[in-house]
Design goal:
The protein is α+β, with helices and mostly antiparallel strands. It has one domain (66-314). It is built from twelve helices and eleven strands. The protein has a four-stranded antiparallel sheet with strand order 3-10-7-9. It has a three-stranded antiparallel sheet with strand order 4-6-5. A two-stranded antiparallel sheet has the order 1-2. The longest helix has 23 residues, at 272-294. Mean pLDDT is 87; it is low at 310-319.
Length: 321
Amino acid sequence: MTLFIRLLDAENKAEAMAEAVAAVRAGRADLRVFEVNPEAFAQVPGSPFAYWVSEAVRTMFRKFKPISETVFLGKGPDTGDDFRFLRLFWEIPSIDIWVNHPKGGQFSRYYSDPHLMIDWRNNGLYVALIGNMRNISFIRRPGITWSRRTSSDLSIRCMTKGCVFSDKGPAGFIFDDAHDKLLAVLALVNSQAFGYIVAIQLAAADAAARSYEVGVIQRTPLPEISDAIRQQLAAKARRAWSIQRELDTTNETSHAFILPALLRAQLGGWDPDALKAELQHIQAEIDAIAFDLYGFSPEDRAAVAGLSNLDLDLEANEDEE
């Protein structure tokens, strides 16, 4: 067994280290001290030094099948020359040859407006002249997408039918394109439990810069769910998407834009605070369901909640585009 001391939250690390060492010498319990067999790290893909994680969480990689057995995950085309092939949607006089192109963006779960468009004339043959055309059989299919590199927490959103996903905005697809299955997956991958298990593989639960590569997401376990739970999760994800889009109707650079916030408020029936509160409630319900499906103990749930609180100040940062 090996002792690990975790001091990331300590302002005075020298003092905290001395206190932790003194506790070990005196045989006292200390929440900053972890005793782990290094061989246990091999249970997690890549064998990261995730010493702060309980044994029960580490064994989830053997207990559940990877998400790749349920969802196809992959990168989309890389144009090789974004200046030539990409435009903001409001820059385009005609959309005959232009297609929505999710490609990173700010932190946003469930919904994110695809403000970029790609020149997709002749079904992408123009891009193929110099670009890297990946997974073209999945192009224009409904799916989920996320930002591959980000300084904020993992956020996965719905990708509507007709989009061309990207290298920096990978995507996931249900093999039969069933909407309820896709929405249920969308709910689970946005849960605290799933995000925590992804962070374990990165050994960077508190790190500011993260790279959510396709391989990392592919290896993350996903529990099996009953039809009843699937319907619950799908309904909650659908409502979360609807709320996020409703909040976007006052964003002048969004496809969803209706009116500026001040004018929208004057018309009545517009309460963004209430919408955000409902969204938080839905997220809490999804988190509770996911914790139960994965079998997180109360102690592990508390550990996840603590890390999530540390991430709150990161969520306003922009992801890579």
